[in-house]
Write a structure and sequence with these properties.
With 297 residues, the chain is mainly β. The protein is 1% helix and 49% strand. It has one domain (15-288): Tachylectin-2, Chain A. The strands form six sheets. Strands 2-3-4-5 form a four-stranded antiparallel β-sheet, with no helix packed on it. It has a four-stranded antiparallel β-sheet with strand order 6-7-8-9, with no helix packed on it. Strands 10-11-12-13 form a four-stranded antiparallel β-sheet, with no helix packed on it.
């Protein structure tokens, strides 16, 4: 029987501590969901990318650190965010990361590789994709091809095609911008396809402050993309959360977001809710508690 997810309440792992699932990346592997999260026990400075797994998205088993602090890009005075993992067609796993300096001037994408989803991952290095700055990221995969979504506030939100080895960017597929501020896009992007329609989701550029997150749709990755719409009721600031991932689950979708607490990042609460995705529309509706069993109904 699936466990209950209580919206806005912290997940506790099998060790009894707060599951560090912030800025999450998540993938289904057999009967489990594997999740990679920012370990925020040291605040915003890099400690580790923690790896967990679950059968119901409610109860989490800690598998260890997929990537730990070290030197260079991974030094403990650095910032490493938004861990997202993809499994390549050859079976190896690539962890893709937002790599930053303390003043957020580096704006790079990092890559690490492993034989198992939980790692440990070998860090390969970082880049500015095609010379563009890159902050919050998301990933998408289709027909063995990997894609990177990357926020470049000088030019917009890019959808990149990854190289065959997923360890670098090959080309730009599309660039999305805001309607009222066409010089910029949205951050914390995530992408799904449902019934032949692509949905991209993102958050406005308001720092740690929360806002009304948006989505746009298209018949193909290169567009044309629709105008942006609110995910949740206007003015709710997406129920006080920022999107990290939209996860397909058993024919439905789950919105996975963070309610950032800048004064205690390690205790930033998860806001995970069922998301209605159909006929070109996406709608987030508040639930105090729910389980993935309900998505099958």
């Amino acid at each position: 029987m699936s466990g209950t997810i209580r919206t806005g309440e912290l997940f506790t792992d099998d060790r009894g501590g707060i599951a560090q699932l912030h800025g999450i990346g998540i993938q289904r592997v057999g009967a489990h969901w594997y999740a990679w999260g920012e370990d925020k026990t040291a605040g915003d400075r890099f400690t580790a990318v923690a790896c967990y797994r679950s059968t119901d998205l409610a109860n989490w088993e800690y598998l260890g650190d997929a990537l730990a602090a070290g030197t260079g890009d991974l030094a403990p005075d650095r910032i490493v965010e938004r861990p997202k993992a993809l499994r390549r067609p050859d079976g190896r796993w690539v962890l893709i990361l937002h790599i930053e300096s303390a003043d957020y001037s580096d704006a790079r994408v990092g890559y690490a590789i492993a034989d198992r989803p939980q790692g440990p991952y070998d860090y390969l290095g970082s880049e500015r994709p095609l010379g563009n700055i890159s902050r919050d990221i998301g990933v998408y995969q289709e027909d063995g091809i990997g894609y990177l979504l990357s926020e470049d506030r000088e030019n917009g939100l890019h959808i990149y095609r990854l190289r065959e080895d997923y360890c670098g960017v090959e080309s730009i597929v599309a660039t999305l911008r805001q309607q009222d501020r066409p010089e910029i896009g949205y951050e914390s992007p995530t992408l799904v396809r449902h019934d032949g329609v692509y949905y991209v989701f993102g958050s406005d550029l308001t720092g740690w402050d929360l806002n009304d997150n948006k989505y746009a749709t298209a018949p193909a990755l290169d567009g044309p993309w629709s105008p942006w719409c609110d995910i949740a009721p206007s003015g709710t600031r997406t129920f006080d959360s920022q999107v990290s991932v939209v996860l397909p689950v058993d024919g439905g979708h789950v919105y996975i977001g963070d309610r950032w607490d800048r004064d205690d990042l390690a205790a930033s609460a998860p806001v995970w809710l069922p998301l209605r995705v159909e006929e070109g529309r996406a709608e987030l509706v508040w639930r105090d508690d729910w389980s993935i069993e309900e998505l099958k109904k």
